[in-house]
Design a protein that fits this description.
two-stranded antiparallel sheet; elongated; mainly alpha; 2 strands
Amino acid sequence: MAIPLRPIETSFVGRERQALVAYLMANHALDAEDAAALNLDSPATRRALDRLIERGVVRQPRPDRYFVDLNAWADDADDRRQRGVQIALGASGILAVLVMLLYAR
């Protein structure tokens, strides 16, 4: 049986995403004036940066310079947390229905 690579890749990109934001925050790249350069040496880092830019968390005021929009970062974290809760509730509901169906026999 083949192992799907998508979850592994997504997890790795998630770590890259956190590392990029942590790097920018550590370098005080929190507005356009203080934008910092990034080392985009791996495809995973590039994909993570593209996703962050797409979600508005990281902005690019000049070529090869990036900064974190803290409001967008907080909103993104809230969205991810809310999505996780919805998934957990849905999975719990499905599991509860399955258990009830199995005990009803």
